[in-house]
Amino acid sequence: MTLVRLSGSMSETDAQADVTVVLPDGSALSVPEGSTVEDVAYEIGPGLGRDTVAGKIDGELVDKHAEVHDGARIEIVTDQSDEYLQVLRHSAAHVFAQALQRLYPEAKLTIGPYTDEGFHYDIANVDLDEDDLAAIESEMQSIIEADYDIERVVRDREEALEIYEDNRFKREILDEEAAGEEVTFYVQDDWQDLCQGPHVESTGEIGAVELLDISAAYWRGEEDNETLTRVYGTAFASESDLQEYLELREEAKERDHRKIGQEMDLFSIPTVTGPGLPLYHPPGKTVLRELSNFANELNREHGYEEVETPHVFRTELWKQSGHYENYKDDMFLLDVNDEEYGLKPMNCPGHATIFDQSSWSYRDLPIRYFENGKVYRKEQRGELSGLSRVWSFTIDDGHLFVRPDQIRQEIESVIEMIFEVVETLDLEVEVALATRPDKSVGSDEIWESAEEQLRDVLESGGYDYDIEAGDGAFYGPKIDFGFEDALGRVWDGPTVQLDFNMPDRFDLTYTGEDNEDHEPVMIHRALYGSYERFFMVLIEHFDGNFPLWLAPEQVRVLPVSDDTLGYAHRVKNALADAGVRVEVEDRDWTVGRKIRQGHDDRLPYMVVVGPDEQEAGTVSVRDRFENEQSGVELDAFVDHLVDERDEKRTEPDFIDAE
Predict the structure, then answer these.
(1) Helices and strands (DSSP H and E) totals, the chain
(2) What is the distance between the alpha carbons of residues 33 and 12, in angstroms, rounded to a whole number?
(3) pTM above 0.85, yes or no
(4) Per-residue pLDDT tens digits for 450-489
(5) CA–CA distance, 646 with 640 (Å, rounded to integer)
């Protein structure tokens, strides 16, 4: 899989000093220098030491033999930990690779990580299709039943190069990432793989596996590289857990936003327009407009001013901001009259430039800008998927320019806005602090200060959060919020990013109380993340059954016959006058067929009108749960719709189901 760079192992003679590590409860523990995660576990208690499967160092999942460093935040992973499933799936990827090479000895292994839903392995030199998966899966079961020990073995780089003499992919990993260093292999029976771990103790710990799919993938994810075969699978500790997952997976297929998007005429991504460039049809644009209105209201309530920036800038701006050096490969670049321009991958440099056009006093800050800004990123074509990953998308972007003493208050305000979105749409979120990536700008001191301030806000606010080591933006750390949908899947969502670097790059200043120039702190934030991905989440979370305030069509009037068609239109006009999105079903269908079509169209409400309703001036109301109520005063129904819409309730609730 991937290599590990080894540190020295601890011995009594080597341990000359102590290092201090931080445990999950915040307590400090001193251990000898050179101690491993497993050593830390034994220091805590012998039972925990025996149960240790792996560990986390500063949020990163590592082998239990990984050495800890002074100040490291340490978590011990056992078979009761959430991370255990990741370790088990990592081992299942190895079982797949071993089974594959038993059946296809000519297969060349590349990399095969665990994923959120299982694992995948990229392979070369062998042609597979879905019909081949059953035989590989059967061989995997044999390996699991054999319960081979999974042994960690240390080898030097030269020995590893000899092992992979005829596998250029593994040799490339060794050449680029392990020059002059020892590496680890994991061995099970007579098979081995270059890998940094962690893994379970034996293949028999894998309770249930299933191979799910097969596709093409580029080596290293680069389009210019060789095309490989990628096999997807999943693994669980028990058969019952696997079956539950497979049932949810089938439900997820039914909720797929691409399927529902077509059924509801929400959006399309035709080949003729280009990949990753969605077109929004009138019903889809209606949902996006309501989301935009909601975000705009929140922004104005919290003191933001709306701005607008172009889709394209001279690349001088991107060089000044640092995006050119960090995002050039992901940018769409244009040559205009022998001058280079780039479609914007982010909105922040434009907002920084707007701030720079005025002179500011410390009394003026904070300055808060927002923009529903379209951005463009050249993702690999193989990674594009519906609305979840596209080339063109819109961020409900906000940028704040604040004094250092205003940071905590402003971040707390942003988090309050995000949770208003979460609670309005009845979503669950997971929170994480994303720390400095390898590719970044700014000094160590700036990053340490920024990360500490975000950590303080989360801890003082009592939020449960994870550490996402290395997942920060290149210009600063961030707090990420992941939306959990109705199937328990978590999607990237809002973010709050603290940036000490861009103000310096743009030489942004304000006049302080001392009449000297001071540099503001820049805060990047979004309430949804991007409209595209958030729209995707909502489509699948609600299965297309949007709350009334978001539904493209909120009410459909169903006349029993042509004799009541005129009254149906009078009902429609009364609803439309109140701002309700309403249509009349005037096709020559039976009422039963009209009702079935309304359910298929995922309408919150249908209103049936016949001779009795026309005579009494009432309506019969039917909701999406098939609850019905007859003889409803039209004014009362209109008043309810207005309240349900304006209060942004998540479910139709006009009819008491009891």
Answers:
(1) 20, 32
(2) 10
(3) no
(4) 888 899 999 988 899 988 888 888 778 899 999 888 777 8
(5) 10
